[in-house]
Amino acid sequence: MADYRMLIGGELVAGDATLDVVNPATGKPFATVPRASQRQADEAVAAAKAALTDWGATPLEKRRACILKLADAIAANASELARKLTLEQGKPLAEAQGEVDWSEGYLRHYATLELPDRIIQDDEKGYIAVQHKPLGVVVGITAWNFPLLLACWKIGPAVLAGNCIVLKPAPTTPVCALLLGALCRDVFPAGVVNILTDANDLGPHLTAHPDVAKIGFTGSTGTGKAILASSAAGLKRVTLELGGNDPAIVLDDVDVRETAQAIFGNAFLNCGQVCLAIKRAYVHEAIYEAMCDELARLAEEAVVDDGLKQGTRIGPIQNRQQFEKVKDFLETARKEGRIVAGGKVLEREGYFTEPTIVRDVRDGDRIVDEEQFGPILPVIAFSDIDDVVARANASEYGLGGSVWSQDVSKAADIAGRIESGQVWVNQHIAIGPHIPMAGFRSSGLGVEQSAEGLAEYTQLKVVNIAR
Q: How far is CA 304 from the centre of its chain?
């Protein structure tokens, strides 16, 4: 699987150019992969279009079987996929293994889904059925934080619904997607799945392509807006899973030590590079000191190192551009609040910073209002529930949020007032393939996962028969 090739029209092909892939733990290239030209992007779209008629007419059970076969192939190659995932993304090997397992599991769940005809009238006057039909060629564009899982999030529902897909991974994490393409070549008919790599230059061409019917994107809000603008002329269907600035509201009745561990884990998973991670913690003033102290202790104890080394809790930031952004946020945190743990860039090769806890900050500070997407957690004190709910909701984002309390009924009431697509009580990032994922405001458009997410890859059609 180490000979990297793109998948276009059922063939594993070289690119018209090449692209170096950097290991963020060293800051140095560890692989060279093909880079597609605009000509090859057009070939991929043409291959997907050519395969549409046969694949759309393929019985659902056969489409399911292909998806399950891909899940089997991922399981059979799990160790290599996990290691390559750590090399290109930086996350600790245990987290990489978890991502591979989730990728397999999501595909297996997608294979159980269906959108049967819904009969809304069947009487002497007539028969009316609501159907879901394939859209056509789908372009899937994925972010660099979960390169294998996000690829499966796009491929699974797209092909189950009878579409064909052109997948474009992030240029800093293309390796696992290309390895996935090699597996897809042996699973799907030619043209059903196509995977190509670029240097962040083919997105506008693909999203504006006249033969593309739908775009599924996971990534930054800024890029999502550009994709939406690019797709407007063709009125393409668009699903956007974008950024978040997820609040965690911690009431004064929690077990501080236990809750701090959960808050820390859900803030610093994947080095904080998770759209649904806790990005700002609102802690009741009665336990504020104790919570800040406990979070600081956890940050100081966390082992930051190469993800391939045993015992590593937090790996590097994935790429140099994001590394520079995080360094800027550290300077901002130093000016706006008091750093009680971390705050430094590690003097070593690669893109490493210490996990950072910053206290005595408030809404209106940049470190609170903006998504850090890195290993930094601002902790903000509050005293009044109505006030903290208003502050939590005063954001351009609305992807996720959580409330923490021993009084589950009270926490659930507060959760109902949080304006986010996902709100959890006494947990965070509790997602699954059976649970719809959506965002308020600048956190996205449409739905991913579950039957609702599958429906986003279909065209609604009504058959109305008079009797």
A: 23
